[in-house]
């Protein structure tokens, strides 16, 4: 047997710091747009400044934090433009994934796993419950992507859903959508296993549109989540935000 290389303790601590801070950001315990220092994060996590600094460098690469000269770091804000861009990408990719999946023969054990994941729910304002639900939701969508057999699509979906985590968390905070999402997911499964490619594509697109509306409504309701800097919004994004806001008020 070959020698097993030991992982440096500092490396383990930086990984731990990364996961802890990322969780705080995703769950909005560290509010979008707020500033934070290494010292504050050290207190929050119970870890030293060296692993915190290494973790912040990785989080910066992911676009979750930004360095602020002489002041520390700023948690990435949530903008309507971000939401619009991500959901535009989902609308391009996921309906086609659903169509491709519907063209495959799906083994019974895979169908059972999909239905188990689709049955998940959560309790509003319960962070752990919401986190567990989002994990199952991610696994549900990635399982459908895996049915295509296209490794590039699968990897793209993994990256996309990592970017979606915080948006989902904000969106689910305004009301419990468990029953609605169960119906949407079960309808998608039915279309896929029945080989109804066109229907699967339409169901996936409708679910994404509903999800986008949910997230934008939540962000507009929670003013601290919403970056109103007009320079960060393109014309389409601003029209989208205003249309959702007007519809909610009408």
TrEMBL record:
Domain HTH gntR-type, by residue range, is 11-78
Q: Which SMART domains match?
A: FCD, HTH_GNTR
Q: Which Pfam families match?
A: FCD, GntR
Record-linked InterPro entries: GntR_C, TF_FadR/GntR_C, Tscrpt_reg_HTH_GntR, WH-like_DNA-bd_sf, WH_DNA-bd_sf
Q: Which UniProt keywords apply?
A: DNA-binding, Transcription, Transcription regulation
Name the UniProt record assigns to this protein: GntR family transcriptional regulator
What is the organism of origin for this protein?
Aquamicrobium soli
């Amino acid at each position: 047997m070959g020698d097993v290389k030991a992982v440096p303790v500092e490396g383990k601590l930086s990984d731990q710091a990364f996961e802890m801070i990322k969780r705080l950001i995703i769950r909005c315990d560290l509010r979008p747009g707020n500033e934070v220092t290494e010292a504050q994060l050290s207190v929050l996590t119970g870890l030293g400044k060296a692993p915190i600094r290494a973790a912040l460098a990785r989080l910066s690469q992911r676009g979750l934090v930004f360095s602020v000269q002489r002041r520390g770091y700023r948690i990435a804000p949530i903008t309507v433009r971000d939401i619009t861009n991500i959901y535009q990408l989902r609308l391009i990719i996921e309906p086609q994934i659903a169509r491709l999946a519907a063209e495959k023969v799906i083994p019974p054990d895979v169908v059972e796993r999909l239905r188990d994941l689709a049955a998940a729910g959560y309790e509003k304002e319960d962070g752990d419950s919401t986190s567990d639900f989002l994990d199952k939701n991610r696994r549900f969508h990635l399982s459908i992507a895996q049915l295509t057999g296209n490794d590039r699509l699968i990897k793209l979906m993994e990256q996309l859903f990592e970017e979606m985590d915080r948006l989902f968390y904000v969106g689910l905070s305004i009301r419990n959508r468990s029953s609605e999402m169960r119906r949407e997911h079960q309808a998608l499964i039915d279309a896929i296993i029945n080989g109804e490619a066109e229907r699967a594509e339409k169901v996936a697109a409708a679910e994404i549109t509903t999800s986008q509306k949910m997230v934008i409504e939540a962000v507009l309701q929670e003013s601290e989540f919403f970056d109103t800097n007009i320079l960060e919004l393109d014309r389409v994004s601003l029209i989208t935000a205003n249309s959702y806001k007007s519809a909610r008020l009408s």
